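Encode chain A's predicted structure.
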Amino acid sequence: MDVKGKRIGVGITGSFCTYERAFAALRELTDAGAAVQTVFSAAAGATDSRFGDSEGFCRTAEEITGRKPWYTIPEVEPVGPKALWDMLIILPCTGNTLAKLANGITDGAVLMAAKAHMRNERPVLLSISTNDALGMNMKNIGLLLNAKHIFFVPFGQDNPVKKPASMIARTELLLPAAEAALEGRQYQPILFGPPETV
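Encoded structure for chain A:
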Protein backbone atom coordinates (compact mmCIF):
# COMPACT_ATOMS: atom_id res chain seq x y z
CA MET A 1 0.00 0.00 0.00
CA ASP A 2 1.38 3.38 -1.01
CA VAL A 3 2.05 5.99 1.71
CA LYS A 4 0.84 8.80 -0.55
CA GLY A 5 -1.92 10.70 1.21
CA LYS A 6 -1.53 8.68 4.41
CA ARG A 7 -1.50 10.52 7.72
CA ILE A 8 1.57 9.37 9.60
CA GLY A 9 2.80 10.28 13.06
CA VAL A 10 6.54 10.03 13.61
CA GLY A 11 7.79 9.78 17.18
CA ILE A 12 11.39 10.92 17.56
CA THR A 13 13.30 9.66 20.60
CA GLY A 14 16.82 10.26 21.86
CA SER A 15 19.17 8.12 19.76
CA PHE A 16 21.05 11.20 18.56
CA CYS A 17 23.79 9.29 16.73
CA THR A 18 21.21 8.00 14.22
CA TYR A 19 19.46 11.31 13.53
CA GLU A 20 21.14 11.92 10.19
CA ARG A 21 19.75 8.65 8.85
CA ALA A 22 16.42 9.14 10.64
CA PHE A 23 15.84 12.57 9.10
CA ALA A 24 16.78 11.23 5.66
CA ALA A 25 14.06 8.57 6.11
CA LEU A 26 11.64 11.25 7.33
CA ARG A 27 12.29 13.25 4.16
CA GLU A 28 11.73 10.12 2.07
CA LEU A 29 8.30 9.70 3.70
CA THR A 30 7.24 13.25 2.91
CA ASP A 31 8.67 13.07 -0.61
CA ALA A 32 6.52 9.97 -1.15
CA GLY A 33 3.43 12.06 -0.35
CA ALA A 34 2.73 11.19 3.29
CA ALA A 35 1.29 13.88 5.58
CA VAL A 36 3.66 13.67 8.55
CA GLN A 37 3.32 15.03 12.09
CA THR A 38 6.40 14.64 14.31
CA VAL A 39 6.31 14.13 18.07
CA PHE A 40 9.50 14.64 20.09
CA SER A 41 10.23 12.86 23.34
CA ALA A 42 11.40 15.00 26.26
CA ALA A 43 15.01 13.92 25.66
CA ALA A 44 14.86 14.46 21.91
CA GLY A 45 13.20 17.85 22.20
CA ALA A 46 15.49 19.36 24.82
CA THR A 47 18.93 17.68 24.75
CA ASP A 48 21.95 19.10 22.98
CA SER A 49 24.69 16.60 22.13
CA ARG A 50 27.84 16.27 20.05
CA PHE A 51 25.53 15.27 17.18
CA GLY A 52 23.70 18.61 17.20
CA ASP A 53 21.41 20.83 19.24
CA SER A 54 17.78 20.11 20.00
CA GLU A 55 16.54 23.38 18.53
CA GLY A 56 18.19 22.55 15.23
CA PHE A 57 16.69 19.06 15.16
CA CYS A 58 13.21 20.39 15.88
CA ARG A 59 13.60 23.05 13.19
CA THR A 60 14.74 20.42 10.69
CA ALA A 61 11.67 18.29 11.44
CA GLU A 62 9.42 21.28 10.85
CA GLU A 63 11.19 22.13 7.58
CA ILE A 64 10.80 18.57 6.30
CA THR A 65 7.16 18.08 7.28
CA GLY A 66 5.80 21.61 7.08
CA ARG A 67 4.30 21.16 10.56
CA LYS A 68 5.48 22.24 13.99
CA PRO A 69 6.49 19.22 16.12
CA TRP A 70 4.43 18.21 19.12
CA TYR A 71 6.14 17.85 22.51
CA THR A 72 3.50 17.26 25.18
CA ILE A 73 1.01 14.66 26.33
CA PRO A 74 -1.96 17.05 25.90
CA GLU A 75 -0.97 17.64 22.26
CA VAL A 76 -0.99 13.91 21.44
CA GLU A 77 -3.99 12.77 23.49
CA PRO A 78 -6.48 13.51 20.64
CA VAL A 79 -4.61 11.05 18.38
CA GLY A 80 -6.78 8.20 19.67
CA PRO A 81 -10.26 9.70 20.01
CA LYS A 82 -9.99 11.59 16.71
CA ALA A 83 -8.17 8.74 14.89
CA LEU A 84 -5.69 11.27 13.53
CA TRP A 85 -3.18 8.88 11.97
CA ASP A 86 -3.15 5.90 9.64
CA MET A 87 0.18 4.81 11.12
CA LEU A 88 2.69 5.76 13.80
CA ILE A 89 6.42 5.31 13.21
CA ILE A 90 8.88 5.62 16.10
CA LEU A 91 12.10 6.75 14.43
CA PRO A 92 14.52 6.19 16.05
CA CYS A 93 13.13 3.96 18.79
CA THR A 94 15.54 3.77 21.72
CA GLY A 95 15.88 0.83 24.09
CA ASN A 96 14.23 2.92 26.80
CA THR A 97 11.22 3.54 24.57
CA LEU A 98 11.10 -0.14 23.56
CA ALA A 99 11.07 -1.23 27.21
CA LYS A 100 8.34 1.20 28.19
CA LEU A 101 6.19 0.38 25.17
CA ALA A 102 6.49 -3.36 25.87
CA ASN A 103 5.44 -2.80 29.47
CA GLY A 104 2.60 -0.34 28.95
CA ILE A 105 4.35 2.73 30.36
CA THR A 106 3.13 6.05 28.95
CA ASP A 107 5.16 8.74 30.70
CA GLY A 108 5.92 10.98 27.73
CA ALA A 109 4.55 12.37 24.50
CA VAL A 110 5.84 9.64 22.14
CA LEU A 111 4.61 6.82 24.36
CA MET A 112 1.25 8.50 24.90
CA ALA A 113 0.97 8.96 21.14
CA ALA A 114 1.59 5.22 20.73
CA LYS A 115 -0.99 4.32 23.35
CA ALA A 116 -3.57 6.70 21.87
CA HIS A 117 -2.90 5.46 18.32
CA MET A 118 -3.01 1.74 19.22
CA ARG A 119 -6.54 2.01 20.60
CA ASN A 120 -7.63 2.34 16.96
CA GLU A 121 -5.88 -0.96 16.02
CA ARG A 122 -3.74 0.77 13.43
CA PRO A 123 -0.08 -0.07 12.74
CA VAL A 124 2.90 1.07 14.78
CA LEU A 125 6.28 0.73 13.05
CA LEU A 126 9.44 0.66 15.17
CA SER A 127 12.83 1.70 13.82
CA ILE A 128 15.04 0.52 16.66
CA SER A 129 18.38 1.91 17.81
CA THR A 130 19.59 0.41 21.07
CA ASN A 131 22.89 -0.66 22.56
CA ASP A 132 21.23 -3.46 24.54
CA ALA A 133 19.06 -5.14 21.89
CA LEU A 134 20.88 -8.43 22.45
CA GLY A 135 20.98 -7.83 26.20
CA MET A 136 18.24 -6.73 28.58
CA ASN A 137 16.03 -5.42 25.78
CA MET A 138 15.88 -8.68 23.83
CA LYS A 139 12.89 -9.79 25.90
CA ASN A 140 11.09 -6.54 25.05
CA ILE A 141 11.81 -6.94 21.35
CA GLY A 142 10.40 -10.48 21.62
CA LEU A 143 7.25 -9.21 23.31
CA LEU A 144 6.72 -6.52 20.68
CA LEU A 145 7.40 -8.90 17.78
CA ASN A 146 4.42 -10.90 19.02
CA ALA A 147 2.15 -7.92 19.68
CA LYS A 148 -0.75 -7.15 17.36
CA HIS A 149 -0.39 -4.12 15.08
CA ILE A 150 3.31 -3.61 15.91
CA PHE A 151 5.89 -4.00 13.13
CA PHE A 152 9.62 -3.45 12.79
CA VAL A 153 11.87 -1.83 10.24
CA PRO A 154 14.43 -4.60 9.51
CA PHE A 155 17.37 -4.38 11.88
CA GLY A 156 20.74 -5.93 12.67
CA GLN A 157 23.98 -5.51 14.58
CA ASP A 158 25.78 -2.29 13.73
CA ASN A 159 29.13 -3.04 15.37
CA PRO A 160 29.39 -6.61 16.71
CA VAL A 161 33.04 -6.22 17.73
CA LYS A 162 32.90 -3.04 19.80
CA LYS A 163 29.17 -3.14 20.71
CA PRO A 164 28.13 -6.80 20.55
CA ALA A 165 24.64 -6.22 22.01
CA SER A 166 23.82 -3.19 19.84
CA MET A 167 21.34 -3.27 16.98
CA ILE A 168 19.94 -0.58 14.68
CA ALA A 169 17.26 -0.47 12.03
CA ARG A 170 18.11 -0.31 8.35
CA THR A 171 16.37 3.01 7.77
CA GLU A 172 16.87 2.73 4.01
CA LEU A 173 14.11 0.11 4.22
CA LEU A 174 11.70 2.31 6.18
CA LEU A 175 9.48 3.13 3.21
CA PRO A 176 8.81 -0.46 2.08
CA ALA A 177 8.45 -1.49 5.75
CA ALA A 178 5.85 1.25 6.21
CA GLU A 179 3.97 0.17 3.10
CA ALA A 180 3.91 -3.43 4.36
CA ALA A 181 2.76 -2.34 7.83
CA LEU A 182 -0.15 -0.40 6.32
CA GLU A 183 -1.22 -3.72 4.78
CA GLY A 184 -0.85 -5.51 8.14
CA ARG A 185 2.36 -7.31 7.09
CA GLN A 186 5.84 -7.48 8.56
CA TYR A 187 8.40 -6.59 5.90
CA GLN A 188 10.89 -9.45 5.43
CA PRO A 189 13.60 -10.35 6.08
CA ILE A 190 13.48 -8.69 9.49
CA LEU A 191 17.06 -9.51 10.55
CA PHE A 192 20.26 -8.50 8.79
CA GLY A 193 23.93 -9.17 9.39
CA PRO A 194 26.31 -6.32 10.21
CA PRO A 195 27.20 -3.78 7.53
CA GLU A 196 30.15 -4.75 5.34
CA THR A 197 32.07 -1.74 6.66
CA VAL A 198 32.30 -3.26 10.18
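The helical segments are 19-31, 42-46, 54-65, 73-76, 95-102, 109-118, 138-145, 174-182.
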